[in-house]
Write a structure and sequence with these properties.
Number of helices: 0
Number of strands: 6
Strand content: 35-45%
Strand order of the largest sheet: 1-6-3
Largest sheet: 3 strands, antiparallel
Structural class: mainly beta
Amino acid sequence: MYYRHYTFPIVQWGYGYNGDTIRFPISFPKKVFICLVTPNSGGQGVPHSEQLTNAGFYLLSGTQNHAYYFVLGN
């Protein structure tokens, strides 16, 4: 009998602007493990994601021009 123990994760990345709704090019079929958001330069506020789903999230980046994101899931 064969058991599948591991699956390869889906990795997606990009950038967006404060207040953008980010839609992933490939929706995650099962779940998102982690969504990292980092600023492109100095400013006020902590860039982060809200309303994270398998299809996307809402990006808040404070006073940054834009922020980068890295998402890992399966």
